[in-house]
Design a protein that fits this description.
Length: 333
């Protein structure tokens, strides 16, 4: 069945309104607060509780995968790590399946508790004290280490299923975010560079393996736009849509990606790693792979952008590819 990706705001409001009965909710107000890969509405309840209602994009996760996301976030919360916790429907499942207004498709809709706070990206943008910025990255390192501690010690239920950012997930025949070395806009030279990087990444990760205490469930998208600072100054991670199995270095690389040209990049990297090591062991061997995972993040975003034209992600892609190839050529595998 075709999956419309160009739903209007009015269509999304209809889906959100229709889903409310699954939780028995009658909010005082429902506000569209985010429209990206997923759509998020904030619900304000008569008893002053607030929720985030998420309409998930089609084709990215199955319902069992979405249910597994709720299992992990609940386990994190049970371990004392404050993250959005899913609210199950009155009938028990974590999601309601709601038809699109034209009846040609459907959307999975979920509900999580609302987290109060200010986006870390906004805090950093407004901050003038470099030391305070660096301190935030020390905090992020501690949060990531706590999450990795929980995931490494956790035994997921037998029905748990999520994607993997492993060798096949990055550079296999059908990677999770697509074949970055094989998209139409690439020149022959760019294909050669990226295909060479693909082979080097496969070899390096196969040699490293998954048995070094650095592979488990990871957030996989904990950049500063997905971190809130609550009124007490504590960091809260949210948006677990990309969470899957992967190397811990990738979690760290996502935090740092896009910041490499900042004059204090080395300082925030040191702070991030120091914060992480204050909670969880992280060997020099593990740290030595961080530049590789920064490059991997850069490369997989090539196909990620290509495959999301409905969100305007292809704008500027040619320049992004050129920069990625230049950085790949400069990288020492």
């Amino acid at each position: 069945m075709p999956e419309p990706t160009n739903l209007s705001d009015a269509d999304l409001y209809k889906i959100a309104e229709q889903s409310l009965a699954a939780w028995g909710l009658k909010p005082d107000a429902m506000e569209l607060v985010s429209r990206s890969e997923n759509t998020v509405f904030r619900l304000d309840m008569p008893d002053r509780r607030r929720y985030a209602l998420r309409i998930h994009r089609p084709g990215y996760h199955t319902l069992p995968e979405l249910e597994s996301e709720l299992l992990w976030t609940q386990a994190l919360n049970d371990a004392g790590i404050r993250v959005p916790v899913g609210v199950r429907t009155l009938n028990g499942p974590g999601y309601a399946t709601i038809p699109t207004p034209d009846g040609t498709s459907s959307r999975a809709v979920g509900l999580v508790n609302w987290l109060d706070g200010k986006l870390l990206s906004s805090v950093i943008q407004d901050e003038t004290d470099e030391k305070r910025i660096i301190d935030h990255f020390h905090q992020i390192g501690r949060v990531l280490a706590a999450m990795n501690n929980q995931a490494s010690a956790w035994a997921p239920p037998s029905a748990f299923t999520r994607h993997a950012f492993d060798v096949p997930g990055y550079v296999g025949e059908q990677p999770f975010w697509g074949r970055f070395w094989d998209i139409p806009p690439l020149t022959r030279g760019q294909r050669d560079v990226l295909s060479g990087a693909r082979a080097e990444i496969r070899e390096a990760l196969n040699d490293y393996g998954k048995h070094r205490g650095t592979y488990s469930m990871i957030h996989a998208d904990l950049h500063t736009h997905n971190i809130l600072i609550d009124p007490s100054g504590n960091l809260q991670a949210f948006d677990f849509d990309d969470a899957g199995f992967g190397w811990h270095q990738y979690d760290l690389a996502v935090v740092l990606f896009g910041l490499e040209d900042l004059p204090y990049f080395d300082a925030i990297t040191d702070a991030l790693v120091d914060g992480y090591r204050s909670i969880r062991p992280f060997s020099d061997e593990a740290l030595s792979l961080l530049p590789l995972f920064l490059l991997i993040r850069r490369l997989v975003l090539i196909s990620w952008q290509w495959e999301r034209p409905e969100l305007g992600r292809r704008n500027g892609l040619e320049a992004y590819i050129e920069d990625a190839c230049n950085r790949t050529n400069a990288f020492s595998f």
